[in-house]
Amino acid sequence: MENKEESLSLRDSSKKAEDPRPNGDGSNIKDVDHIPERGNWTGRFDFLLACIGFAIGMGNVWRFPYLCYKNGGGAFLIPYLLTLVFAGIPLFFFETAIGQMMSIGGLGVWKICPLFKGVGLAAVVMSFLLNVYYVIIIAWALLYLFYSFSATLPWDDCENWWNTPNCTTNYTYVDNSSVSTTMEFWKRYILRETEGIDEVGQLRWQLSLTLMLSWIICYFCIWKGVEWTGKVVWFTASYPYVMMFILFIRGVTLDGAVDGIIFYIKPDFEKLAESEVWIDAATQIFFSYGIGLGSLIALGSYNPFHNNVYRDALIVACVNSGTSIFAGFVIFSVIGYMAHTQNKDVAEVAASGPGLAFVAYPSAVAEMPISPLWACLFFSMMFMLGLDSQFCTMEGFFTACIDEWPRYLRKHKEIFIAIVCFFSYLIGLSMVTEGGIYVFELFNTYSASGMSLLFLVFFQTVAISWFYGVERFYLHIEKMIGFRPNIWWKLCWVGFTPAITAGVFIFSLVKYTPLTYVDYVYPDWSYAIGWMLALSSMLCIPGYMVYILAKTPGTLLEV
């Protein structure tokens, strides 16, 4: 048993040719001289910036502020911070530590618990699907950014061919038929929406080009390996903070900004009695930290073995949540200004998701002096927020695949990445047609979020803490960082975190309602496609268990 455990033990700081332990591809070091090196971070802060760039995405800007005001303002921070402490930070530390411990991607780490390799397969499927549709948001932001380089913003007036007689430029609704010019620009020009998912319409050539450009940029961010990516993240991770700070200074100096900020943070403790508030807090933590996709494992795998991953996880967690809270001030100061100019309540102009980024905020920007400048700053920030989240998710997918099959893929890494990017682009074209927004929402709801992600995270945590052994995992962490973490993390991994993920998963099933887009109800066949997307990852876990049990001789305990 000791010899078996030693064969599964992890790399140390000095690699010897006769060492039989894994070398990032699951093979013995002496057998892989002809395989190119997988690489490591070249700078001390590369890993930190990559994790910050990956975890801090568009959701920090458009989803967290909306959830905060919707669920009781400052009172929402109570369930949010509790979930962060009991699940968010423990899982972030958990995944980065596993990657650093094994020095291998999201598939190879399951050598320590082969029965649960389906978790790694599920993460690969989920990250691929996420890469396909998340880049669509980047394409939208890029198109808005291009249109911002003009003397007059195209959504600033109603003198365009896409505007209707109901268009209004002062955003003051005369009656229920009035539509803001920013809404018409978003729906009638950018998306050019059809009536439903069964009406595909024509390809939006402008979006197809920005989508292609987005994929090309993502490709060149990761094509040369992690050493090159480590240089890229210095810009992509820091640029949004510069823009966010500039927009914050501009926002708080606007009339009505205080009203928006008060609306954002004013606590309503009665909301805490509603179960949905706690569910929203938990889901926001899981999604915003990028947990379960294999990307954190991949980013951690390029660390030196004795890197203090414990410290890094705490730093990234603080930066991530701090950015979410700060982004609320940036957004709601401007939303307050827009409400002030329209003589409306803040609640009437606040929105979530694409509605905030591509309708509400552009409406406010259009009313500012030198509006193209502020539009350029905002959409360049959104582009960078999406870009580093996208290529870090891609890194997780490619690291898992290349480390699993290094003899076939590592020599041809650049070609492999190009082929996957090309086919992902082709799939993404279905989301930049005139009916593409309906396909996008289907992917967004079912493929890589919600129940499928919670299902994966539950089994990932249970596999290591219960089956591999949390005490053994603790010993490995102690060997890496030089000290033993306190018992809190063990309690979370064994009990609190699985309980939270299972509880939110069950509640999501009980409260499940079919997807709708505004007032549009999807046809039944589209729900079947949505569940196929969800099950494509979820079924990997029990499916691989059945496969490995049928293939491997011996009892369940021996497997």
Describe the protein in words.
It is a single chain. α5 (77-102) packs across α21 (451-481), α6 packs across α21 and α13 (295-301) packs across α17 (371-404). With 559 residues, the protein is mainly α. The chain is globular, with a radius of gyration of 24 Å. Strands 1-2 form a two-stranded parallel ribbon. It is built from 24 helices and 4 strands.
Which structural traits does this protein have?
24 helices, two-stranded antiparallel ribbon, 559 residues, mainly alpha, single chain, 1% strand
Question: Quick recap of the structure?
Answer:
This protein is mainly α and 559 residues long. Helix content is 66%, strand content 1%.
Count of distinct strands: 4
Uncertain stretches of 5 or more adjacent residues: 1-33
- Counting DSSP H or I runs of 4 or more residues, the number of helices is 24
- Mean pLDDT score: 85
Question: How are the SSEs placed, and which strands pair?
Answer:
Elements: H1 2-8, H2 46-55, H3 58-62, H4 64-70, H5 77-102, H6 117-148, E1 167-168, E2 179-180, H7 181-191, H8 205-222, H9 226-236, H10 239-252, H11 257-265, H12 275-288, H13 295-301, H14 309-342, H15 346-349, H16 354-366, H17 371-404, H18 406-409, H19 413-428, H20 436-446, H21 451-481, H22 487-510, E3 516-517, E4 520-521, H23 524-538, H24 540-551
Helix pairs in contact: 2-9, 2-13, 2-14, 2-17, 4-14, 5-12, 5-13, 5-14, 5-21, 5-22, 6-8, 6-17, 6-19, 6-21, 6-23, 6-24, 7-16, 8-17, 8-19, 10-14, 10-17, 11-14, 13-17, 14-16, 16-17, 20-23, 21-22, 21-23
